[in-house]
Target: Microcin J25-processing protein McjB C-terminal domain-containing protein
Amino acid sequence: MKDKILDIISDLIFYNEWTGACYASVAIAHTLLKFNKIESIPCIGVVGCDNGEFFDHAWLEIDGLIYDLAMPFPQDPRSRAYDYFDDRFGFRGIVSHPHIAFGIDEDLDDEAISIASDFGYLMKHTPCFNPEIDFWMLASDLSKKLNAPASVDDLKNSTTSSSWVIRRSQKSK
Model:
């Protein structure tokens, strides 16, 4: 089920050309995983690349491994971080990456701080590709593709104890 959820999120990002989707895609994936009783940790932190680029970012950790589906689709089209990808699926199940450090010891910007303060805060927002629905509704729609339909209330109830974890442990490259 974990891989199926991650595939659905990857497809969502790719087919909607959803740049800058890290926070939302992590929140939606965590919500679907949690509803399906798969533990994950939604993380926010600064990512540093060996090309000198630093940016606020979000990723999932599952069983101590990093899952980052959004990095191939950066917010800033001039970003050089995507140079490290061969495909559209990002990173799945890595401990570390030779060119990218997740959670370096740098301060987050105001947007990341406000998102990290409340897991449900972001879920009330609307995706850029469909302003008619919020992320809770999107997650509910995606749950049907998993053959595990969930109402918005079911999803909210499954994530009542969820919170973002701010990662700041690594030294910058």
User: Anything to note?
Assistant: The longest strand covers residues 41-49. The mean pLDDT is 90. Strands lie at 41-49, 54-62, 65-68, 91-94, 100-104, 165-167. The radius of gyration is 15 Å.
